[in-house]
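S1.2 Input.
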Amino acid sequence: MYNYYEHMEYYEREAIKLHHPLYHKLYPYVRMVCAREDHIYNMHMQPFPSKEDFDRMVKEVKVMYEREGRKQDVEASVYGGGALEALIGAFIITELLRRRRRRRRYNPYGSPYGSPYGGPYGDPYGGPYGY
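S1.3 Output.
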């Protein structure tokens, strides 16, 4: 099995190039708002924000985007008011889920069972089944 882990940065960069230009304009604001709001001490965001908090975050991103003078963009006029807010909402949900997902440990052997030799990447008793 080929280990793609070393090439993930390249694949991620190439995939990001395929996004719509509006994504590249909106996503920095989405990340800024999510970084400010989504932390363990904000009880309004745990386990997930309420509808009112979510709508407030969407409006903040939209105001930040329009404040930069980009209201006259062709992309923004294509999406209109409601569709632009729906798009921002989808970006916020994606970012919140990305921030909360469980991180996978790096496995240099490419096996879901860890190292065949035990140690830090596998079972200390020799294998995945303990024999």
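S1.4 Remarks. Residues 16-101 form one domain.
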